């Protein structure tokens, strides 16, 4: 147990909630959450509702709970309009930094993304020396990279110590994005369709491991910690350290769920899938609908993207608590229970 007090921004989201749980599990006495969308939390947690772009409401929360450490996990979702991405990811993060400095917060841990250095090409064992692309492939990673720059540039300003973590492929219990999407492919009978040759490696990160990394980083941001100088002002890739061929991951989820397709695998080559995505995007724009397949999606599915986490292992003493297979098992267990709960709610209504 540390002597810090914590404010987890986005603490009702997937990662934020797991961070809060781990803080409580290790006996932290002062844990608070700031989130725009609130959901039930442990009664030991102070909860503040507000928008991170609203300096007044964020300042009130900081003044009320007096955190020595802010863990900032709030973010927009990929695919949202550029204006919203800039508002939340850039201006929101800038507001967090300014309010942290104004109220004398000592530590700021920021959740970035492994994709802030992705340039659309294969990246094998990419490490933290990789530069930001001149042009990002999408607005999400462009704005996340801008936010990360703000956080790292703020290190040392008015005694604020900052660090940025770059998890890759987050998944786990409570996931409302990756797991539902992949399990929906199974439920709709499309699990036999494969885009690309499945030779490209991809890094996934179980949510419990990502949460652990945030606590390790927060602890080492303390000026008295022996590894403070290795952490403050730095960015770190966080993964399970177990890259898999891209399609092997969803297939492991489907197998754990007890599903087996009787259909032969239909392989759509990357080039053909890219052309098909272009056509789908064109007609989706005409019809004002969300495209079911995008060129960006094809690029992500078919590119090798695995990270070297040596820096995190050395400076943060990070080692995944949960293996990828353990994460898959607990994730499917959660998904099944969630499906049952949804079915019961439908029957009740």
UniProtKB/TrEMBL annotation:
GO terms for molecular function: oxidoreductase activity, acting on the CH-OH group of donors, NAD or NADP as acceptor. The keyword Transmembrane does not apply. Coiled coil: none annotated. Residues 7-265 form the 3-beta hydroxysteroid dehydrogenase/isomerase domain. SUPFAM superfamilies: NAD(P)-binding Rossmann-fold domains (SSF51735). InterPro entries: 3Beta_OHSteriod_DH/Estase (IPR002225), Lipid_A_modif_metabolic_enz (IPR050177), NAD(P)-bd_dom_sf (IPR036291). Belongs to the 3-beta-HSD family. This is 3-beta hydroxysteroid dehydrogenase/isomerase domain-containing protein.
């Amino acid at each position: 147990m540390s002597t810090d007090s914590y404010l987890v921004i986005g603490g009702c989201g997937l990662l934020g909630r797991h961070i809060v749980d781990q803080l409580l599990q290790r006996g932290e006495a002062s844990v608070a959450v700031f989130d725009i969308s609130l959901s039930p939390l442990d009664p030991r947690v102070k909860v503040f509702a507000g928008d991170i772009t609203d300096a007044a409401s964020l300042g009130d929360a900081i003044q009320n709970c007096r955190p020595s450490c802010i863990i900032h996990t709030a973010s927009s979702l990929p695919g949202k309009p550029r204006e919203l991405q800039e508002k939340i990811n850039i201006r929101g993060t800038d507001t967090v930094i300014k309010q942290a400095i104004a109220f004398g917060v000592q530590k700021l841990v920021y959740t970035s993304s492994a994709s802030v250095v992705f340039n659309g090409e294969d990246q094998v064992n990419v490490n933290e020396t990789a530069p930001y692309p001149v042009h990002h492939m999408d607005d999400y990673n462009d704005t996340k990279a801008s936010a990360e720059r703000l956080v790292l540039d703020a290190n040392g300003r008015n005694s604020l110590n900052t660090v940025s973590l770059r998890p890759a492929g987050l998944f786990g219990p409570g996931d409302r994005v990756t797991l539902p999407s992949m399990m929906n492919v199974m439920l709709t009978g499309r699990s036999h369709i494969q885009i690309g040759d499945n030779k490209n490696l991809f890094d996934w990160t179980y949510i419990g491991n990502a949460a652990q990394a945030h606590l390790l980083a927060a602890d080492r941001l303390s000026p008295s910690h022996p590894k403070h100088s290795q952490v403050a002002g730095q960015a770190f890739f966080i993964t399970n350290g177990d890259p898999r061929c891209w399609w092997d991951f969803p297939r492991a989820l489907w197998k754990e769920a007890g599903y087996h397709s009787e259909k032969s695998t239909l392989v759509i080559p990357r080039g053909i899938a890219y052309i098909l995505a272009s056509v789908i995007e064109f007609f989706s724009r005409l019809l004002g609908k969300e495209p079911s397949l995008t060129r960006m999606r094809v690029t992500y599915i078919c590119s090798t993207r695995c990270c070297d986490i040596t820096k995190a292992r050395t400076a943060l003493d990070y080692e995944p608590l949960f293996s990828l297979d353990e994460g898959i098992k607990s994730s499917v267990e959660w998904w099944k229970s969630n499906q049952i709960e949804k079915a019961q709610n439908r029957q009740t209504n």
